[in-house]
UniProtKB/TrEMBL annotation:
Region ranges (Disordered): 85-119
GO biological process: regulation of apoptotic process; signal transduction
CDD domains membership: Death
Gene name tied to this protein: Cradd_0
Pfam families reported in the protein's UniProt record: Death, PYRIN
Organism: Brachypodius melanocephalos (black-headed bulbul)
Name of the protein this chain belongs to: CRADD protein
Residue intervals of the DED domain: 4-79
Segments of skewed composition (Basic and acidic residues): 89-106
Residue ranges of every copy of the Death domain listed in the record: 147-194
Amino acid sequence: MARDERVTLLEVHQALPEEQFQSLKFLLEGQVPAGLLLPASRPELCRILLQRFPGNSLRVIAGILRQLGRLDLIQRFQLPLEEQIPEITPREANGDTPKGREDPASGHRPGGIPAAPMNPRRLTEKDLMQVAQRLGKEWQEVGILHLGLERSRLEQIQEENPGNPVLWNFEMLREWRRRERHQATVSQLRSCLEHARLDPGILDFLQSLQGN
């Protein structure tokens, strides 16, 4: 069983292009120390995951692959996916507020009038990664002019993630989300990027998220 788990992990890692492999390591940072992840090769990452998540490493990787949008790999290798509570449940996305929780947009508790059309959708890690993959070479211009970030912080991001433009974009967007906190919604990001020199597909993508 352990050998099968190791072989499957390695095959999954080898099926990822280098850029997505680095993104996978980045998304694992909340569960594995960055000092172990960043220098790890594909076989080394297998060893780390098997040690950290004995018997459960394939489930962990499946969750990360779902964030990367690689459902094809989950299906190809028949990886286990446990049902997880999403950051925004379908009921919340439709404006319904779970019992005991106040709707930050309207202030209504359960029993009030749901504000479905105006319910803001907050950005998830997966959303940010999908936007990051669409951003081009002008990422620093976007960060400074349209997201209001400091150039020194953007240079630090670049130094921390050498040779990986997608991670520069992703970390830049995460920095913006950390600063905006509860205001880091899909509509807010779309408003910030509306006048930036970007692929129009980014705005279309964000527009599609607002409808979800």
